[in-house]
């Protein structure tokens, strides 16, 4: 196999460098490819499993769509801030009860937050949002609307890209911050201070609390989780459809490609995966130091 | 071996006699300091030399004989040779100059040490060292163990008075090396000053030739001044002690007063001047050259300063210039306030089409407007007293121009206090925002600053921390342009004031530290401050020794200023320009007096 192998003398070739051998340095013999290994440690994906996992991504996409729909309604005055606030409050309470119920199911929770801490957090959220909403309302007054929209779009995209889909329970800093920044930008375009307050509370609900609940559901009740994902997706498409049919179609296409097409591609393309490993790889250090000890 | 003989120029035409001088230790060279003429009694010569030695601390000896035979004086040879037995020396130089010839001839008589009898071996030296190849030749010169002799002529007065400066930035460790030959020679000539006091016209047992001072008559004024300076110094030091007692009164060390006095440049100038006077009036005479130059520099710049100050005062108090100034000052302050008002109004609109936050803009604008209003009322309250303040302030010019300038700087600082206030408010606000934004930006990315390790670490924040942080980040980000604009405008205003004050401070500092005396010395008596020497070939007659003329290289002006600059309280700005720009960008306060204090941060 060696490029310039010399027909062998009687001495067999050995793969060592410390010995003087009658072979050129780059000589290899017939056993060269015997140690070749392909696709080591590969996981075979199944289509529907992948689709289920991708459902979370689609669900998050739909959440963003639902938030934008709510903002559109608020901006056009079709939705009053009071009703949004009340709905959010009811949803929060329901979600909280559900969350607590799911928590009591599993006993492993070691660092559980007390009710008092939750109440404290909620108070902080509400008071700060309420206090700052007049400031936030005038914040982007002099900035042009297009700039605000562009900034919000970029930030929401950043939220979607940096969202920790595998472990969303403590939401990732960057994703949550980007989403909050975008919602502050959008909320500051609304007509009144109360609108801003309602919108920000809603953003907190959608981007911060909802993923926590969903993660808990995924862990404890996978069947309900799948149903909920489908429900959210359908809700997102319907909601957006009521405002802009074009947007709804686009969202449906995006969801379809993310949930159905991409897993299909993944599974299909996995056949073509061809990783080779062999003795030419860099040395790996296995931390087995036991033979050094005696 | 080359024997070097340093020969004073003034002795070129001296009558025959004995050469008094010294061999330089470690070098094969002799310095001739004076010539003692015939006739003399050897015992008197020895006593005279001992006396001079005791006075000057320079070891003197008789080096040899010098003869310049007049017409009709012949047959000195044997007499001269006999002299060497009277003044026993290891080597006896015998220098002859024939009348009408430029070159000298030199004979070296070496005395044999081991033996009571002195066996003199004479060697005739007639060396011509031509440039290029040092070809040794001449009539009747033996090849082999001859010594070449080089005469180096020097001007005794210049060498005596000049101060040879160490070479700057050259090879250090001057302590390790013994002083060079040239340095030893300079020091020797300077130290043997008592030798030169013997006047040509003095009636004494000995007649000598050396450099003669031009006469003592001219120096009577100097003597009188010297006499007068002692009581003057006493008076000054007495006044100074009173002043120091006054300054040390407890009330001045209380907090606000002390703080003020470190900030007012007049006070700084005052303390600086006090220190100067203390240096000047100290009873001890100046120890060394450096000390002397320092004192002289301080004295001269003090005199020039006071002269300029008196000039300024005479202008101020003539034709009621004070009143004119005072009448112009209040309208000027009013005008500045009005301009500021307009500037703020412009900022409160949409300046240069910038997108400002309207609410914050209005708040800031009104705040500053109110401040200006306060300021104008203050100025108008002060206006009746302005003339008096100016009148009494102008008196300070009699202490020197630097005082007047310092006072002007302080007055500018006080009159532009509102600009300073604006600047501080703007900078603090801006600084707060910048720091807030930078730390919140880290929070935005889920990082935090680790103080212990001085680096950015990742950190998992709580939900409420994230929420509030993002809220604040958004608010700060959108309010930043407004604050930055206010900060920018007021910083520019502040920079103008700082620049003006900086120019004043620099000129005061220049006056305080510029070594006027040293520069004057360099201009009028350039040989006094020597950097080195250069040699010029005087005569190269075949058959005589090489004659070189030693000329003194004066110090460069830059080096003069650098060496003799009086150290002052103000060193030039330590901050580089980039550091300054960075400070401005971050919003740290900049002060003109920050560079002045000696404390280093």
UniProtKB/TrEMBL annotation, chain A:
MF terms (GO), sorted A to Z: glycosyltransferase activity
Annotated Pfam families: GPI2
Keyword annotations: Glycosyltransferase, GPI-anchor biosynthesis, Membrane, Transferase, Transmembrane, Transmembrane helix
Recorded metabolic or biological pathway in which this protein acts: Glycolipid biosynthesis; glycosylphosphatidylinositol-anchor biosynthesis
GO terms for cellular component: glycosylphosphatidylinositol-N-acetylglucosaminyltransferase (GPI-GnT) complex
GO BP terms, alphabetized: GPI anchor biosynthetic process
UniProt membrane topology term: Multi-pass membrane protein
Record has Lyase as a keyword: no
Transmembrane segments: 56-74, 83-99, 119-136, 148-166, 193-213, 225-242, 248-267
Compartment(s) of residence: Membrane
Source species, domain of life: Eukaryota
Family in the record: Belongs to the PIGC family.
Name of the featured protein: Phosphatidylinositol N-acetylglucosaminyltransferase subunit C
The organism's taxonomic lineage, starting at the top: Eukaryota, Metazoa, Chordata, Craniata, Vertebrata
From TrEMBL, chain B:
GO BP terms in the entry: GPI anchor biosynthetic process
A GO cellular-component term linked to this record: membrane
Swiss-Prot/TrEMBL keywords: Glycosyltransferase, Membrane, Transferase, Transmembrane, Transmembrane helix
GO-annotated molecular function: glycosyltransferase activity
InterPro entries: PigQ/GPI1 (IPR007720)
Transmembrane feature ranges: 235-255, 298-317, 363-382, 389-416, 422-444, 465-489, 495-519
Entry-linked Pfam families: Gpi1
Protein name: Phosphatidylinositol N-acetylglucosaminyltransferase subunit Q
Taxonomic classification: Eukaryota, Metazoa, Chordata, Craniata, Vertebrata
């Amino acid at each position: 196999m060696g490029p310039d192998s010399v027909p062998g003398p009687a001495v067999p070739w050995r793969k060592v460098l410390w010995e003087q051998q009658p072979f050129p340095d780059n000589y290899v013999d017939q056993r060269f490819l015997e140690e070749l290994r392909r696709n080591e440690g590969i996981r075979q994906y199944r289509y529907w499993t992948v689709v289920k996992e991708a459902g979370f991504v689609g669900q998050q996409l739909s959440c963003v769509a639902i938030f934008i729909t709510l903002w559109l309604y608020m901006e056009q005055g079709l939705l009053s801030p009071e009703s949004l606030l009340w709905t959010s409050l009811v949803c929060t309470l329901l979600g909280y009860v559900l969350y607590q119920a799911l928590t009591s199911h599993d006993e492993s929770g070691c660092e559980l937050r007390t009710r008092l801490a939750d109440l404290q957090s909620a108070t902080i959220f509400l008071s700060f949002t309420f206090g700052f909403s007049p400031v936030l309302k005038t914040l982007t007054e002099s900035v042009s609307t297009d700039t605000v929209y562009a900034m919000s779009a970029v930030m929401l995209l950043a939220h979607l890209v940096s969202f920790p889909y595998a472990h969303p329970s403590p939401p990732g800093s960057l994703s949550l911050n980007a989403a909050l920044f975008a919602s502050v930008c959008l909320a500051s375009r609304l007509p009144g201070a109360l609108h801003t307050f309602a919108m920000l509370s809603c953003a907190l609900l959608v981007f911060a609390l909802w993923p926590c609940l969903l993660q808990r559901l995924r862990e404890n009740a996978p069947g309900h989780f799948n149903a909920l994902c489908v429900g959210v997706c359908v809700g997102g498409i319907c909601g957006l459809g009521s405002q802009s049919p074009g947007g709804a179609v686009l969202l449906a296409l995006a969801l379809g490609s993310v949930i159905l097409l991409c897993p299909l591609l993944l599974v299909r393309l996995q056949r073509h995966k061809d990783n080779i490993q062999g003795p030419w790889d860099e040395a790996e250090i296995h931390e087995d130091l036991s033979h050094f000890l005696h | 071996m080359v024997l070097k003989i340093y020969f004073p120029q003034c002795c070129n035409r001296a009558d025959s006699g004995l050469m008094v001088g010294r061999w330089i230790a470690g070098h094969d060279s002799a310095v001739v300091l004076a010539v003692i003429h015939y006739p003399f009694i050897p015992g008197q010569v020895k006593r005279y030399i001992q006396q001079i030695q005791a006075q000057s601390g320079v070891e003197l000896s008789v080096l040899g004989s010098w003869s310049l035979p007049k017409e009709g004086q012949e047959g000195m040879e044997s007499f001269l040779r006999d002299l060497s037995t009277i003044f026993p020396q290891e080597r006896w130089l015998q220098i002859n100059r024939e009348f009408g010839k430029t070159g000298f001839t030199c004979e070296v008589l070496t005395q044999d040490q081991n033996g009571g009898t002195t066996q003199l071996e004479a060697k005739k030296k007639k060396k011509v060292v031509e440039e290029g190849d040092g070809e040794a030749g001449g009539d009747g010169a033996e090849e082999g163990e001859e010594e070449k002799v080089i005469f180096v002529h020097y001007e005794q007065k210049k060498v005596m008075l000049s101060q040879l400066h160490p070479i700057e930035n050259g090879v250090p460790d001057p302590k390790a090396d013994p002083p060079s030959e040239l340095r030893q020679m300079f020091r020797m000539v300077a130290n043997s000053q008592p030798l030169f006091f013997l006047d040509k016209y003095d009636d004494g047992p000995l007649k000598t030739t050396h450099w003669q001072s031009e006469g003592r008559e001219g120096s009577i004024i100097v003597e009188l001044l010297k006499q007068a300076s002692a009581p003057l110094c006493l008076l000054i030091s007495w006044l100074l002690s009173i002043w120091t007692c006054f300054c040390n009164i407890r009330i001045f060390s209380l907090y606000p007063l002390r703080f003020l006095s470190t900030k007012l440049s007049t006070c700084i100038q005052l303390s600086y001047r006090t220190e100067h006077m203390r240096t000047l009036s100290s009873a001890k005479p100046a120890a060394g050259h450096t000390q002397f130059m320092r004192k002289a520099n301080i004295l001269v710049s003090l005199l020039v300063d006071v002269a300029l100050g008196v000039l300024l005062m005479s202008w101020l108090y003539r034709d009621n210039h004070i009143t004119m100034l005072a009448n112009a000052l209040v309208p000027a302050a009013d005008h500045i306030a009005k301009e500021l008002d307009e500037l703020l109004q412009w900022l409160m609109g949409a300046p240069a089409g910038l997108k400002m936050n309207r609410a914050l803009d209005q708040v800031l604008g009104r705040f500053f407007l109110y401040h200006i209003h306060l300021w104008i009322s203050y100025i108008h309250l002060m206006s009746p007293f302005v003339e008096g303040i100016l009148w009494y302030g102008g008196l300070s010019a009699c202490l020197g121009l630097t005082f007047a300038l310092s006072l002007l700087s302080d007055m500018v600082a006080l009159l532009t206090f509102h600009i300073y206030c604006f600047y501080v408010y703007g900078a603090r606000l801006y600084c707060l925002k910048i720091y807030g934004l930078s730390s919140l930006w880290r929070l935005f990315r889920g990082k935090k600053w680790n103080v212990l390790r001085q680096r950015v670490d990742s950190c998992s924040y709580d939900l409420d921390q994230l929420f509030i942080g993002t809220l604040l980040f958004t608010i700060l980000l959108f309010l930043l342009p407004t604050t930055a604009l206010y900060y920018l405008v007021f910083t520019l205003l502040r920079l103008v004031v700082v620049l003006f004050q900086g120019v004043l401070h620099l000129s005061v500092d220049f006056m305080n530290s510029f070594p006027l005396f040293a520069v004057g010395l360099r201009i009028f008596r350039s040989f006094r401050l020597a950097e080195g020497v250069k040699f010029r070939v005087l005569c190269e007659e075949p058959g005589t020794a090489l004659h070189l003329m030693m000329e003194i290289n004066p110090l460069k002006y830059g080096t003069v200023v650098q060496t003799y600059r009086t150290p002052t309280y103000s060193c030039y700005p330590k901050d580089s320009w980039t550091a300054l720009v960075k400070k401005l960008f971050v919003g740290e306060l900049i002060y003109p007096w920050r560079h002045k204090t000696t404390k280093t941060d």
